[in-house]
Amino acid sequence: MKLYDYERAPNPRRVRIFAAEKGIELEKVNIDLGTKQQMGDDYKAINSRISVPALELDDGTVICESVAICRYLDEIQPEPALFGTGAVGKANVEMWHRRMEIEGLQPVADSVRNTVEFFAGRALAGPHDFEQIPALAERGMKRVDIFYDTLNERLNESPFIAGDDYTIADIAALCAIDFARVLKKRIGEDQTALQRWHDTVSARPSAKA
Amino acid sequence: MKLYDYERAPNPRRVRIFAAEKGIELEKVNIDLGTKQQMGDDYKAINSRISVPALELDDGTVICESVAICRYLDEIQPEPALFGTGAVGKANVEMWHRRMEIEGLQPVADSVRNTVEFFAGRALAGPHDFEQIPALAERGMKRVDIFYDTLNERLNESPFIAGDDYTIADIAALCAIDFARVLKKRIGEDQTALQRWHDTVSARPSAKA
Question: How far B164 CA sits from the closest chain A CA (Å)?
Answer without folding.
Answer: 17
